[in-house]
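Whiteboard transcription, Tuesday session. T.W. wrote the structure tokens on the left side:
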């Protein structure tokens, strides 16, 4: 038997400098060929594997790499291609692969949604009317590649059948048993081929097991895993879970697999071991290093945690690893030369986390004395950050402690204040608006980047931004939109923009993580006490408003989203950080209002995704979220209208909390989920105003007027026309200018026609 081993369960795909993103986008633009794309990404993939091995990882994951999304990879592996893409069997071409993800002129893209409670998005499988077959054994190809090209005997990673089916569109629940039976032999085939090729380990990801399954479903899961492990007795299957503790622990722990991967950071898996023990015949892959945060771990605590874990499993049966795939963190802190060394020293991105995993593994193997120097170095770096100036703002801490209920309630209830707002704004029935951002052309981006590099002056940059605002206010007026936006041209990212301007934040240079497809985000680092320093958005909003008589919406990112899309310090309670952000935003909102901006949108696209996976944690989270949103927004006048935008979210079961935010208007994505979201509002007494997006902005395709009208009519079956706003699904930042103008024109025409028919 081997001694304790180290592993990771996935590594960032994007490369330290986002080489992956660039290659993909160049390919989509026709600047490089398929062969060039594949060559670049192969190099990147092999580098990542070699790096992990070099840093000392024993079990290196292979096959976690993707050209878009690993759920989509699983679909195409089994020929699961929706009919509208004209697929006729065999290995799925790259063209079809990207068509499913991004849509084409003739076929809408598959739905995309958030991967559990992360900001990573996957492509939702559509299983209706499809007979799955194994058309490409992708894990096998990646396994062979690593072995042949690097001599690495890797641990192939695949998304497990239970999770895959459960995440599929609508079918996951009704037909679970039959689908699982259908997929099991295909998985068996994948595993057999891997075993034949010499693979020793395989990691099967089943994060869905953190959610409660019914007794019947558990029976089905047992059947599937029994079939798989019987077929390949020589292959060591690690059933990998993450993001929470396992819900049906006893049943899952009894499944006939070699090992079980548990998350000890985002779920209290230790309590499960203490309560139920750990099966004597299994390997425990213990996720002790946080795969979802960027801070250096308190290694003394991790050593203690490992000791607790070792009460329940022999050292020979232990694997030390990250709590989740490192996909959710950036690659390395090494190139961060501009960060204060105290901050940099407190950070650990993927490579630094791997070093922590390797150190802890060594500690278990050789005893604590073997790693004293490493522990000491880590302690020092953490203490430096804790004692730094960033964490000593006593005033902010006191202000948060002083908050009362009065601070978080609007002066009048919605039904009364909406009258004052109607009076002020005089909007038509079914008013049209957009969600905030307008196309960020290469020119916009280049100008910003020049300004950042100091190649153009502040004044020249401001003039340029104003010229964009001029142009787009004119376009919006010309199209006939009722409520305008300034366009967010000054922002690279809706969270980073605020992060750069509030105290308590830092922004890394290369700290990118994948959000969806080639889109990466660079979450700001909330490392200290958050505070308002000076107005952030007032200048652009006031300028835009000066150009038009129509209302211009102020545009802010909400406290919950700033929290959820940042890497948040882990030395104080998360909800304390949340209230610090809310207080800072409250000051920004008051500044906007004072400058005459009387419609203010506070975006909360990440509110729903932050909902904890464990239902027992829901209440506390939702209460804290509602409290913070209200804290940020409640101090405005009755005739100031607060909007919020919640993007792609699943609202079933949380409508009451959405309502409790007490925003006057909410906008939500609907078209990409093909209308399903509306059902959440059926039979609900949602009494405020609402805009359900009438067209998908993730695809270059501009829908016809008829299609948009249908979307509007569909929404009007559930929502009163007097409550209803018309807008695209989300911001238009990633769209081209022509597409945007075309899309908005069609939208306004559709709105006018429906308005007239009311
Ligand atoms: N106001 C933002 C925009 O339009 C909202 C983005 C989002 O919901 N993710 O880009
Ligand atoms: Zn959105």
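and on the right, the sequence the group agreed on:
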């Amino acid at each position: 038997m081997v001694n304790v081993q180290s592993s990771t369960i996935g590594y960032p795909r994007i490369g330290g400098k986002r080489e992956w993103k660039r290659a993909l986008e160049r390919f989509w633009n026709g600047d490089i060929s398929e062969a060039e794309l594949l060559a670049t990404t192969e190099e990147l993939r092999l580098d990542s594997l070699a790096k992990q091995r070099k840093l000392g990882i024993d079990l290196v994951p292979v096959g976690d790499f993707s050209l878009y999304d690993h759920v989509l990879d699983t679909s195409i592996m089994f020929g699961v291609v929706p009919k509208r893409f004209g697929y006729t069997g065999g290995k799925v071409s790259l063209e079809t692969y990207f068509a499913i993800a991004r849509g084409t002129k003739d076929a809408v893209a598959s739905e995309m949604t958030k991967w559990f409670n992360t900001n990573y998005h996957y492509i939702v499988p559509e299983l209706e009317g499809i007979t799955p077959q194994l058309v490409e054994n992708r894990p096998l190809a990646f396994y062979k590649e690593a072995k042949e090209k690097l001599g690495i005997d890797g641990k192939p990673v695949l998304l497990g059948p239970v999770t895959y089916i459960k995440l599929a569109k609508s079918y996951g629940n009704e037909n679970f048993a039959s689908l699982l039976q259908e997929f099991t032999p295909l998985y068996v085939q994948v595993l057999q081929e891997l075993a034949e090729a010499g693979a020793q380990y395989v990691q099967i990801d089943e994060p869905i097991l953190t959610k409660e399954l019914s007794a019947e479903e558990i029976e089905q899961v047992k059947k599937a895993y029994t079939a798989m492990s019987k077929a390949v007795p020589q292959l060591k299957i690690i059933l990998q879970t993450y993001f929470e503790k396992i819900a049906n622990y006893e049943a899952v722990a009894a499944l006939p697999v070699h090992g079980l991967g548990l998350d000890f950071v985002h779920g209290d898996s230790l309590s499960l071991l203490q309560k139920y023990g750990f099966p004597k015949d299994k390997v425990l892959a213990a996720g002790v290093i946080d795969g979802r945060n960027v801070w250096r771990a308190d290694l003394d605590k991790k050593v203690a945690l490992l000791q607790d874990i070792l009460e329940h499993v022999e050292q020979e049966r232990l694997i030390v690893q990250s709590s989740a795939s490192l996909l959710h963190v950036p690659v390395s802190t090494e190139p961060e030369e501009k960060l204060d060394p105290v901050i940099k020293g407190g950070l650990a991105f993927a490579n630094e986390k791997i070093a922590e995993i390797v150190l802890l593994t060594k500690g278990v193997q050789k005893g604590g004395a073997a790693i004293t120097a490493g522990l000491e170095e880590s302690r020092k770096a953490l203490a430096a950050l804790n004692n730094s100036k960033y964490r000593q703002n006593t005033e902010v801490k006191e202000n948060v402690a002083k908050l009362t209920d009065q601070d978080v309630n609007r002066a009048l209830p919605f039904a009364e204040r909406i009258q004052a707002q109607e009076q002020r704004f005089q909007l038509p029935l079914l008013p049209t608006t957009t969600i905030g951002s307008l196309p960020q052309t290469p020119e916009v981006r280049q100008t910003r980047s020049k300004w950042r590099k100091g190649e153009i002056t502040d004044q020249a940059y401001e003039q340029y931004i104003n010229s964009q605002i001029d142009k787009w206010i004119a376009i919006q007026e010309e199209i006939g939109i009722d409520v305008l936006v300034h366009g967010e041209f000054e922002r690279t990212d809706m969270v980073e923009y605020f992060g750069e301007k509030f105290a308590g934040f830092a922004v890394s240079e290369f700290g990118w993580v994948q959000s969806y497809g080639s889109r990466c985000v660079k979450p700001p680092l909330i490392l200290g006490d958050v505070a308002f320093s000076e107005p952030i958005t007032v200048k652009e909003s006031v300028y835009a408003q000066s150009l038009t008589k129509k209302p211009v919406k102020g545009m802010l990112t909400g406290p919950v989203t700033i929290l959820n899309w940042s890497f948040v310090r882990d030395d104080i309670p998360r909800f304390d950080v949340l209230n610090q952000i809310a207080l800072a935003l409250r000051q920004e909102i008051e500044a906007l209002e004072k400058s005459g901006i009387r419609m203010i949108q506070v975006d909360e696209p990440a509110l729903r995704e932050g909902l904890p996976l464990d239902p027992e944690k829901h209440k506390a989270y939702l209460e804290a979220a509602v409290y913070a949103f209200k804290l940020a927004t409640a101090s405005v006048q009755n005739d100031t209208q607060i909007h919020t935008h919640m993007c792609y979210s699943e609202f079933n079961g949380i409508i009451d909390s959405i309502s409790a935010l007490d925003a006057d208007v909410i906008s939500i994505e609907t078209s990409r989920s093909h209308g399903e979201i509306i059902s959440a509002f059926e039979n609900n007494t949602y009494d405020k105003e609402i805009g359900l997006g009438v067209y998908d902005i993730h695809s270059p395709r501009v829908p016809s007027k008829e299609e948009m009208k249908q979307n509007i009519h569909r929404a009007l079956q559930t929502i009163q026309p007097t409550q209803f706003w018309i807008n695209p699904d989300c911001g238009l930042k990633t769209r081209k200018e022509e597409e945007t103008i075309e899309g908005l024109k069609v939208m306004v025409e559709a709105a006018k026609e429906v308005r007239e028919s009311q």
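Someone added at the bottom: The chain is about 45% helix and 10% strand.
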